[in-house]
């Protein structure tokens, strides 16, 4: 589904991503874990074409995305639920969801059906559909960011720290929702600081340290590795 080959990404002189390669196969949940500043967000931004790698290539379903415009990534089947709940704060919940489907040319009835599907997954958003998004709680905004990404019916969903800042009960809910979305057929690349939870739901994982991949493998095996436990799972 997604193949990343030897990419380097710089912010000016800062070498944030150093010769990184990884892949996400169709149907998988793959997680990128690592401490603050390891480069997780930078990788997702590179995949969704907000940032350009200086070297290397990214292939989506076999196609090199080098010359694809950022807004066309949705048409290729990739959606990004960004960090920090970057929803459109001044718009209503409904308007935010409509923006998620904006690029797709589809009929009104299809749009309504997609919206209904999102509401089935997130009943809370339905209750609050006329509310200005910036006034939602943190958890609701996070759900809206995910719901908005789902409106484009992605084949692969990039998720940046979906559990960040949420109360424990909401963290549980969000991870259940991620598993459900995957079971319904969407491939997921999940970036998380909550490595423990991410590894529990992922098939495979890559561990990042200062812009490099330092470990990779089956998620459950990584969960039981002493070095990983010590460094990322709180002992
Ligand atoms: P976090 O979870 O804190 O977001 P991260 O693993 O996602 O961490 P990145 O945000 O990708 O890490 O940052 C990787 C490195 O690039 C860090 O050293 C960071 O300071 C640097 N960096 C990120 N954004 C910029 C920027 N706009 N300009 C300069 N350096 C940046």
TrEMBL record:
Pfam families associated with the record: ABC_tran (PF00005)
Family to which the UniProt record says this protein belongs: Belongs to the ABC transporter superfamily.
Gene Ontology molecular-function annotations: ATP binding; ATP hydrolysis activity; branched-chain amino acid transmembrane transporter activity
UniProt key word rRNA-binding: no
Top-level taxon of origin: Bacteria
Boundaries of every ABC transporter domain copy: 2-235
SUPFAM superfamilies xref list: P-loop containing nucleoside triphosphate hydrolases (SSF52540)
PANTHER family the UniProt entry points to: HIGH-AFFINITY BRANCHED-CHAIN AMINO ACID TRANSPORT ATP-BINDING PROTEIN LIVF (PTHR43820)
GO BP terms: L-amino acid transport
Organism whose genome encodes this protein: Alkalibacter saccharofermentans DSM 14828
Full protein name: Amino acid/amide ABC transporter ATP-binding protein 2, HAAT family (TC 3.A.1.4.-)
Assigned keywords, A-Z: Amino-acid transport, ATP-binding, Nucleotide-binding, Transport
């Amino acid at each position: 589904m997604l193949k990343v080959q030897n990419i380097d990404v710089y912010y000016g002189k800062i070498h944030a991503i150093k010769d990184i390669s990884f892949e996400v196969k169709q149907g998988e949940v793959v997680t990128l874990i690592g401490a603050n500043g390891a480069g997780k967000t930078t990788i997702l931004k590179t995949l969704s074409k907000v940032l350009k790698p200086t070297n290397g290539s990214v292939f989506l379903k076999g196609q090199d995305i080098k010359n694809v415009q950022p807004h066309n990534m949705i048409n290729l089947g990739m959606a990004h639920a960004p960090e920090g709940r970057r929803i459109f704060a001044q718009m209503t919940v409904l308007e935010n969801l409509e923006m998620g489907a904006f690029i797709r040319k589809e009929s009104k009835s299809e749009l309504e059906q997609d919206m209904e599907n999102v509401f089935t997954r997130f009943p809370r958003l339905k209750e609050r559909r006329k509310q200005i998004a910036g006034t939602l709680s943190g958890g609701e905004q996070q759900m809206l960011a995910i719901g908005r990404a789902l409106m484009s019916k992605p084949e692969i969903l990039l998720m940046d720290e979906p559990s960040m800042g949420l109360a424990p009960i909401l963290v549980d809910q969000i991870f259940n929702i991620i598993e459900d979305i995957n079971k319904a057929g969407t491939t997921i690349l999940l970036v998380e600081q909550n490595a423990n939870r991410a590894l529990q739901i992922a098939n495979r994982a890559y561990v990042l340290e200062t812009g490099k991949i330092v470990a990779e493998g089956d998620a459950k095996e990584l969960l039981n590795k002493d070095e990983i436990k010590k460094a990322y799972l709180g002992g």
